[in-house]
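Q: I'm writing a short explainer about ABC transporter substrate-binding protein for a general audience and would like to include a description of its predicted shape. Could you first generate the structure from this sequence?
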Amino acid sequence: MAGLALVAVAGCGAGRTNGGGSGSGLVIGTTDKIFSLDPAAAYDQGSYVPETQVYQHLLNFAPGATNPTPDAAQKCEFATPTTYSCTLKQGLKFANGDPLTSASVKFSFDRMLKINDPNGPASLLGNLDHTDAPDANTVTFTLKNANDQTFPAILPTQAGPIVDEKVFPADKIMDDDAIVKAKPFSGPYTITSYDKNKLVQYQANSGYNGILGTPKTATVSAKYYASADNLKLDIQNGNIDVAYRSLSPTDLESLRKNDKVEVHEGLGGELRYIVFNLNTMPGGTPEQKLAVRKAVSASVDRDALSTGVYKGMYQPAYSTVPQGYEGATEPFKDLYGAKPNKAEAAKFLADAGVQTPVPLNLQYNPDHYGGSSSEEYAAIKNQLESTGLFTVNLQSTEWVTYQKERARDGYPEYQMGWFPDFPDPDDYLTPFFAPNNFLQNHFEDPSITAQLTAEITQPDKTQRIAILQQIQSDIAQKFIPVLPLLSGKQIAVSVKGVQGVESTLDPSTKFRYSVLSK
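A: Of course. Here's the predicted structure. Afterward I'll give you a sentence or two in plain language.
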């Protein structure tokens, strides 16, 4: 069955390290792609999964928990309103034998900010002024703004992995193969074999001393699929133990009827949206560009995407903060309607003097956000063009190239998806709209920046919610740098007998191999 062949797991290939074979223990399949194993370079779910297994954080989220607890740290606390201090556990080491000390922590955060890679998570550290290591077991973070309600929850995110200062260069990204060879890992697992985006093999790290505990399965193999169809075939035939991202809605419908597998769902807060590059999108003036964004907002049909494309797996999203989070509102529904309104869209364009049809060069990714992305964006193209107000040039690019091109202003309008770093509404706002945000779409506004600072540092819950709601309203009415479309759950499929899947499908969005067993 040549058409069902998985990517090669034997023989030569780029990115190959330390042998081959599928190994024993659990086998996990995915269509996600690893962008980089260097924490400073990766801010995507495909890279977040291996990072979760091999890097330790000062604080982390235990399975099912929404409050961060000590991992490499023994304790962390605010010493002053602008100083957050952590004491490390004694005797921590990386898998290569190098000591993990406060110098390692300081190096990791200094490096993240110094490199400030356009595809990395440095934007999460916008409130960090500097990091100090007064002694081998103490690290102190000095914050720009006092009373930061989110900083402890940022430490377990992709901005917070602790890396080995004796291995990683301070001012540039490190190659994946070199990382694997040097074994600068201190998480529950180490990587023993690495064939990038084909096969990655993990071995339990006996030196790990953290909140996630001893892995329940000693060896895990992660297989990377080019096609969700092949991923579905292998999970239903028992060739792999777990399928995590991304099976199509049709595949999931079929698998729910299969008594040999289990479909697991958990809270996830995934968001799917369109990003507008404010420099390269259509429009001769900022006012015209805003009118185009408003017209697009009034022309999309989220319900049709939810039911027609995703069969209810995703729900319509009318704000960048999904429903269920404190302070979540639906300003895009209030301002532009739940259904397309051609007359309103036409008025936005006419009032700003925008000639129609407006040409949109809309880019999407076919291999990172699931196999239904092609159908989703074909539907969006049809919705926009059916108004007569737009002509849509729809194109797709695979993920690694996609990330590089969008960082180079290659796409005027493009698909993105989001998994929250931590379970707080700010994580759907600050990374998107603060200065140096990860979207790289040239959005920055002083009023939004001031409101973001205010909500982060406001200890009164009622007042903070009011600020969060105002930000959502202003983004939808005055700016629209992104257009929220859909929000959804985390979903994984396992063969019968696999334990622990549901416990890791929680709001932290950390898929932890260490809790899985069979």
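A: For your explainer, you could say: DSSP finds 16 helices and 17 strands in the chain.
Q: Perfect, that's easy to follow.
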